[in-house]
């Protein structure tokens, strides 16, 4: 317990809370460093291309599965749910709007966070504990430029593209279910989708996923560079990154949604 | 002799744990210093402080009369690290790059040499370390001794003024120790200044011009190799016996 007249805080809960605030502060500073390094020489363009190939293209298979599954499952549930009230005709609108605005960005980002966020933490963390990050510094280069900036921008670029793919496949999956389960013609389904989903609905999903990509990269790379304690430390870091980035994505999603609703209305 | 590196009253601690309390020494041009001391006495921390990988609490590290700790911006730190290079204990090779790309990394980053010129330079360095033809191997394909030598090749490829060797012979068999020490001697013949952190007293005696011993967070002994080997100071004798035991256990 803290003693009167001293500033010492010994409550473990309070210390944990202070640690969380410290982590957030450090990540904000880390983000500022990434932006500073992005706009000053030297640039590592080929590393960015490599990272887009590894993180973006490497996540396509998982995105296809997520997108199709979301579309199929949502359409089935909404379809039978709304059928009770004679509302099957609204299924294309409900499914496409929720996919474009929320489900595609959130689910794609959460699953990609598990894949690339943990990958970043594991790769950079292993480099850190084996002194490879120190070697980058000792050889007169900056680990943020060499390791972090390409990963950050590859995540920011790749996530919206993956989300678009996921959204498209989800809507496609919905069309298949609507046709086979509810006898809805594909032409009617597509018209309903195009009437409902406005460009700003789609854009809000893209902007969200870009921000989620940034969150995944910041959390993953920051923790990777802070990893200590050998292989055990690397394991702890990967777990921490998946949990933290998932929570951060969900919390951020609420605020971004609120902002977009204020800008574009309901 | 021209002094190129001067450590003046260095203090360093990690939290409550004090590592250095008033460390002083100088490195002259072309000289090889051996920095000895028990495990956990902060030898490697001292090397890391010299190139700005660790921040000292107080004191001055002067490289050509310029204070190293004042090199806080990226550009100046980068310039310093081109002149003082660090050979890591484990080699610290980038495991995603092959041997060629590891050794060529500083050349790609800091020179405007063409790819062909870089290939020639890497081949020359590999010849110097007696590891020709391994350009395409990955670090995981190399033995511990080979990794250390490739790490040393990477550290020397830009021809730095000073090389800091962090336990280059640790964990190696006698044949590999001989290879590593021979390489360090070759570089010494070329006029390279260096600081060698080691527990390997025979290697230090063969390689160094002067020996420093860290005891109780300070430089306890600073003298020539002859003065070290002929010393009858009980603390130095005790230290040498301890190191011999440690080396024996390690082997």
Notes on the protein architecture:
The complex is a heterodimer of chains A (266) and B (251). Chain A has 266 residues and is mostly helical. Chain A has one domain. Chain A has helices spanning 12-38, 45-56, 60-83, 91-129, 132-138, 143-182, 186-196, 199-225, 230-264. In chain A, helix 1 (12-38) crosses helix 6 (143-182) and helix 4 runs parallel beside helix 8 (199-225). Chain A is elongated, with a radius of gyration of 22 Å. Residues 1-6 of chain A have low confidence and may be disordered. By secondary structure, chain B is an alpha/beta fold. Helices cover 41% and strands 26% of the residues of chain B. Chain B has helices spanning 43-50, 74-83, 99-110, 115-128, 144-156, 174-189, 201-207, 225-230, 234-250; strands at residues 3-14, 17-28, 32-37, 58-63, 66-67, 84-87, 162-166, 193-197, 210-215, 218-224. Chains A and B meet through helix 5 of A and helix 2 and helix 3 of B.
Helix content of chain B: 40-55%
N to C succession of SSEs of chain B: EEEHEEHEHHHEHEHEEHH
**Over the alpha carbons, how many angstroms does the gyration radius of chain A reach?**
22 Å
β-sheet strand percentage of chain B: 25-35%
Task: Find the count of extended strands of chain A (DSSP E, 2+ residues).
Answer: 0
The top-level CATH class of chain B is Alpha Beta
CATH fold-level assignment of chain B: Rossmann fold
CATH architecture of chain B: 3-Layer(aba) Sandwich
Q: Globular, elongated, flat, extended or rod-shaped: what is the shape of chain A? A: elongated
Main-sheet strand order of chain B equals: 6-7-8-3-9-10
Distance between the termini of chain A: 50 Å
Largest beta-sheet characterization of chain A? none
**Whole-number radius of gyration of chain B?**
18 Å
Any idea how many domains of chain A?
1
Mean of pLDDT of chain A: 91
**Discrete helix count of chain B:** 9
Ranges of chain B with pLDDT <50 over ≥5 residues?
Answer: none
The shape of chain B, in one word, is globular
């Amino acid at each position: 317990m803290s003693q009167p007249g001293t500033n010492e805080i010994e409550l473990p809960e309070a210390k944990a809370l202070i640690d969380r605030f410290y982590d957030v502060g450090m990540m904000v500073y880390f983000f500022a460093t990434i932006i500073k390094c992005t706009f000053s020489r030297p640039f590592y363009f080929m590393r960015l291309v490599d990272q887009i190939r590894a993180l973006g293209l490497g996540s396509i298979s998982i995105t296809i599965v997520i997108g199709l599954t979301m579309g199929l499952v949502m359409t089935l549930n909404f379809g039978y749910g709304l059928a009770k009230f004679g509302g099957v005709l609204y299924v294309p609108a409900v499914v496409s709007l929720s996919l474009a605005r929320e489900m595609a960005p959130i689910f794609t980002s959460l699953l990609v966070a598990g894949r690339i966020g943990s990958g970043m933490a594991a790769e950079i963390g292993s480099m850190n504990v084996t002194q490879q990050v120190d070697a980058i510094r000792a050889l007169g280069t900056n680990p943020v430029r060499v390791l972090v900036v390409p990963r950050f921008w590859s995540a920011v670029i790749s996530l919206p593209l993956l989300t678009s793919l996921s959204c498209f496949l989800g809507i496609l999956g919905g069309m298949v279910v609507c046709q086979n389960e509810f006898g809805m013609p594909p032409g009617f389904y597509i018209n309903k989708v195009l009437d409902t989903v406005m460009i700003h609905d789609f854009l809000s999903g893209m902007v969200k996923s870009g921000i989620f990509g940034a969150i995944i990269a910041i959390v993953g790379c920051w923790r990777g560079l802070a990893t200590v304690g050998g292989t055990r430390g690397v394991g702890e870091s990967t777990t921490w990154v998946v949990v933290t980035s998932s929570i951060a994505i969900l919390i951020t999603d609420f605020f971004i949604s609120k902002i977009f609703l204020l800008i574009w209305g309901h | 002799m021209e002094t190129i590196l001067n450590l003046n009253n260095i203090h360093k601690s990690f939290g409550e744990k004090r590592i250095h309390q008033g460390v002083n020494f100088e490195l002259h041009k072309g000289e090889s210093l051996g920095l000895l001391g028990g495990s956990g006495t902060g030898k490697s921390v001292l090397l890391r402080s010299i190139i700005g990988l660790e921040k000292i609490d107080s004191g001055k590290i002067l490289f050509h009369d310029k204070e190293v700790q004042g090199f806080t911006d990226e550009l100046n730190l980068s310039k310093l690290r081109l002149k003082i290079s660090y050979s890591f204990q484990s080699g610290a090779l980038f495991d995603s790059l092959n041997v060629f790309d590891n050794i060529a990394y500083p050349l790609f980053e800091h020179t405007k040499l063409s790819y062909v010129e870089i290939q020639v330079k890497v081949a020359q360095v590999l010849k110097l370390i007696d590891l020709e033809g391994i350009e395409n191997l990955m670090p995981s394909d190399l033995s511990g001794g080979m990794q250390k030598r490739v790490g040393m090749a990477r550290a020397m490829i830009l021809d730095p003024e000073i090389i800091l060797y962090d336990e280059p012979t640790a964990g190696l068999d006698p044949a590999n120790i001989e290879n590593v020490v021979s390489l360090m001697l070759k570089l010494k013949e070329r006029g390279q200044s260096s600081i060698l952190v080691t527990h390997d007293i025979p290697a230090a005696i063969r390689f160094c011009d002067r020996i420093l011993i860290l005891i109780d967070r300070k430089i306890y002994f600073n003298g020539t190799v002859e003065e070290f080997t002929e010393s009858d100071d009980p603390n130095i004798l005790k230290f040498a016996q301890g190191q011999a035991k440690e080396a024996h256990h390690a082997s």
